[in-house]
Structures are given as C-alpha cells and as structure tokens.
Fold DUF4190 domain-containing protein.
Amino acid sequence: MKYVAPVNVAPLALIAGYVGLASMLCLPAPLALGLGIAALVDLKKKPGKDGAGRAWFAIVTGGIGTLMLLIAFVGRLFH
C-alpha cells in the first residue's frame, strides 16, 4: 500500500517527489533538486519515516532537468 498511497512518508520527501515528477518539464528542476537533497537530510533526522525513494527520484530528475536547462542557457549564449 505504501507504493500507492503516501503512508508514513515524510512531508518534505512527498513534496520533493512530486516536484521531481514535474521537473521533467524542466522548469522546476532546480527546485526539485534542492527539495530532494533537503528531504534526504530531513529523513536522516527522522529514522521512522519513509520517502527516501521519492527524495532520490527528485534528485535524479531535478539534476537531469537542471543540466538540460544549463545546456539550453549556454547554447543560447553562444548562438
């Protein structure tokens, strides 16, 4: 059930996961990256909470999206 509904998931990890999903559109990618990192730090302080998978998802998708934004920005500078 915890894979379908967020049961016992830290709120910051939940938010990071959803922003990570939205970061596939590239716009909130840096936010997803930051929230994912913050969620992992928060989860270390709360050992009884779940959500590390969502936090890592936000970090990976946010990192990829941020990299794509940087490449697009640099490409426009030299175009």
The mean pLDDT is 85. Helices lie at 11-22, 29-45, 52-77.
